Amino acid sequence: MAIVNLKGRRRTIFLFLLPGMLVYCGLVLYPLMQGFILSTQRWRTLTRRVYVGLDNYVSLMHNSIFWTSMEKSAVFVIGTTVLQLVLGFLLGYLLYHQLKGYRIFKTLFFVPVILMTVAVGFIWDYIYSPAFGLLKPFMEFIGMGDRYFPPLADPNVAILFVILAHSWRQVGIQIMLFYAGFMNIPQDVIEMATIEGASGFKMIWYMILPLSWEVSKMVVVLQITAALRAFDLVYVMTKGGPNHSTEVLPMHMFVHAFENFNIGLGSAVAVIIFILSMTLTLILRRVMQRETLQY
Predict the structure, then answer these.
(1) Torsions phi, psi of 262, nearest 5?
(2) Residue 225: is its pLDDT beyond 80?
(3) Is 7 contained in some domain?
(4) Mean pLDDT, to the nearest integer, of 133-161?
(5) What average pLDDT does this structure show over 270-276?
(6) What is the pLDDT of residue 251?
(7) Among 271, 273, 217, which Cα is nearest to 41's?
(8) Which residue in 86, 127, 142, 163 is deepest, having the highest Cβ count within 10 Å?
(9) How far is 91 from 99, CA to CA, in rounded Å?
């Protein structure tokens, strides 16, 4: 009788999971497989494709602009992750203390997240503009007007100013994640640590950080995978210029696939982005793995 019930439960569980599995296969796995297939093909015309194996990947390996895009993506990922991790942790910790007016700041911190990417791009383009922007008058006000230069026109620093704009837009998510993680820490644990003499930096290092380690790990993984896929803000602000200095991998994929209409090369870049995301996720989960603290 128990065996019959178990079989019936398995059948019921499978029937409940089937709609979700079909949606997942249709919207995730099938496009993923198509991307791998397209990366092994070359389009002769709009309707004619030929199988070329790994030739698209070999072409990318010999393309200097591809390696430039890899370098810029690495800078973009590291810069946005460090900046958002530090700001998200500190501002989330301040919200956790629920200082006067903290509800207003919760709203203000999250406003950039809900803005359209195109609007954010135009806002920061306006700020950086030498003719109408706010950056030049600000530098003149603090006595550094002679050092001003158009940030997005300099290949050496353009990616850094794009990182700043991207972090401004996304950091609200990290703040809310850290804030939620801090709020889940039992108050009696913090009070006990305070009685034992923990405060300030010691409180953060020995109590808050270890107890919110799982949240920190989730923030790092989500931010890195999101940064590897960043395209829209870069396209609006610089379109990969000047001289490919902000052409991150998704932008490089767009150029191949939709400007040069080389779908095979574009799909190969997309597959590489996917492999990098999966590899970095697995490595980070392994490196940041630690015993969960019980409280």
Answers:
(1) -110, 85
(2) yes
(3) no
(4) 83
(5) 93
(6) 94
(7) 271
(8) 163
(9) 12
- What is the rounded CA–CA span in Å between residue 134 and residue 148? 11
Using CB atoms within 10 A of its CB, is residue 19 exposed (0-12), middle (13-18) or buried (19+)? Answer: exposed
pLDDT (tens digit, 9 = 90+) per residue, 155-173? 889 999 999 999 999 999 9
Please, are residues 74 and 161 in contact by the beta-carbon 8 Å criterion?
A: no
Assigned token pair, 255: 């150029």
User: The tokens of 223 are what?
Assistant: 């931010």
C-beta of residue 251 within 8 angstroms of C-beta of residue 69: yes
Is 1 a member of any domain?
A: no
Question: Is 222 inside a domain boundary?
Answer: yes
Residue 70 near residue 248 (C-beta atoms within 8 A): no
What residue numbers bound the domain in which 241 lies? Answer: 64-114+159-287
CATH code of the domain covering residue 70: 1.10.3720.10
What sections of the chain are H helices per DSSP?
A: 2-24, 30-38, 55-61, 64-96, 102-114, 117-128, 135-141, 158-183, 187-195, 200-203, 209-211, 213-228, 232-237, 249-254, 263-287
How many Å separate Cα 124 from the centre of its chain?
A: 19
Question: What's the rounded mean pLDDT across residues 222-247?
Answer: 91
CB 272 within 8 A of CB 100: no
Say how many domains are in the chain.
Answer: 1
Would you list the DSSP string of 36-62?
Answer: HHHTTEEESSSS-EEE-TTHHHHHHHT
Please indicate, yes or no, if residue 177 is contained in any of the structural domains.
yes
The whole-angstrom separation of Cα 85 and Cα 212 is 13
Q: Which residues pair with 43 in a beta bridge?
A: 49
The pLDDT of 189-198, averaged and rounded, is: 74
- Single out the residue of 106, 66, 48, 63 nearest to residue 272, CA to CA: 66
**Phi, psi of 18, rounded to the nearest 5 degrees:** -60, -45
Total number of residues shown for the chain: 295
